[in-house]
Amino acid sequence: MTFDSSWQPGDIVDLQRYPLDRPESRTYRDVVEAVRQALDTQSCAVLSNFVRADRIDRLRAEAETLRPHAVYMKHEHNPYFSAVPDDAPVNDPRR
């Protein structure tokens, strides 16, 4: 298995937009609050441009080297491994 263990969070994550390294900052608190609200209201939070655009190709290449070790499932399921209620809206993240 080949992966680059030398990467630091700032090598991958846009720390200006998502300051994981500065939990005391106002931006960090605002992001956490927005994520909490999204989870409370939509059961899903989207972190747009979380991964730095200039790293995507390198991450993709690294993921390809790890593909043989991936776990594949033959049945469909949602990320929660739970049943979706029949009356759930079409855009419900559990679908």
Helix tally equals: 3
What is the count of β-strands? 0
- What is the approximate shape? flat
Mean pLDDT: 88
- Radius of gyration based on Cα positions: 17 Å
Largest sheet: none
Strand content: under 5%
Q: What is the helix fraction of residues, given as a range?
A: 25-40%
C-alpha termini separation: 33 Å
Helix and strand composition category? mainly alpha
Low-confidence stretches: none
Q: Helix and strand succession?
A: HHH
Summarize the model shown.
The protein has helices spanning 9-12, 26-42, 56-66.
Question: Topology, please?
Answer:
Layout: H1 9-12, H2 26-42, H3 56-66
Could you please describe the fold and organization of this structure?
This protein has a domain at 9-69. It is built from three helices and no strands. The chain has helices at residues 9-12, 26-42, 56-66. The longest helix is centred in the middle third of the chain and has 17 residues, at 26-42. It is flat, with a radius of gyration of 17 Å.
Please describe the structure with a list of short key phrases separated by commas or semicolons.
mainly alpha, flat, 95 residues, 3 helices
